[in-house]
Hints:
The complex is a heterodimer.
Chain A: E1 7-10, E2 18-20, H1 21-42, H2 50-69, H3 74-96, H4 107-137, H5 146-181, H6 187-219
Antiparallel strand pairs in A: 1-2
Helix pairs in contact in A: 1-3, 2-3, 3-6, 4-5, 4-6, 5-6
Chain B: H1 5-23, H2 28-47, H3 52-66, H4 68-83
Amino acid sequence: MQPGPKVLAxxxxxxxxxxxxxxxxxxxxxxxxxxxxxxxxxxLKMVPGRLQxxxxxxxxxxxxxxxxxxxxxxxxxxxxxxxxxxxxxxxMILGIIPGLVNPAGDINAALAMALxxxxxSQYLAIKKNGxxxxxxxxxxxIFLMFPMNVLGELAKPISHSFRLFGxxxxxxxxxxxxxxxxxxxxxxxxxxxxDLFMGLVQVLIFGMIAISYISVAISD
Amino acid sequence: xxxxxxxxDAIIKAGAxxxxxxxxxxxxxxxxxxxxxxxxxxxxxxxxPEARADITATMLLGQAxxxxxxxxxxIIALILIFRA
Lengths: 220, 84
């Protein structure tokens, strides 16, 4: 038993560009999100239909999460934060389907999203206060704290991505252990627990921590 | 005393598996922390039942942050098991 992504092929035969199953499933998630967006966008009405109403409930929920940490900035950050919420959410749901793997169980996918949040929050901090104040922030409260502050900032994307990756791969390992001695019927409730419940809680947590990193970056 | 390569590999594997098991003792910390957060969450809901949704969201976020050290030790254990 070897958890983690499996290499299916190499891109243009190049050994350095492997195509893994998690990569294919994340492309599938992206395509599903594009189709979903196109379907919802095709007929927007003042009196929403069923699909539009459901989408509005989802987006209002995400805007409320952003507003709870950054009052008044909900609509500004909804494209970025909403994409993170929906991509990780659809990745969790795709992970239940037999034969598909959860892209969040690949450290590359989790780290890519965490790094996007990291660079975006640094960019916002520089844009708000200017480079001088940004660099000076690393020397607070005294200049001796500079290495600590830099390390503390660099640890953010690592803990952010490991939290998602560790939870997903931990559930996956428990389920695959159960598949080895009870392959029928018994793993189904565990799928609901680890993939649906814990997975959707992890989506909420991943998004909330992204929001909190951004709100810390633009607050000072 | 001469160690054959097979014995050498076996000792490395044994050390790695033992290390993975010992490293997961770190699971104590997140367990205590998450339980404490859950207990405080129940107390808060008991005091203010109308704020249940906010309390639950805050509790889950705090528990996720408390879980970080456990996740670190879990990843180290995984590396030890599957890379040894």
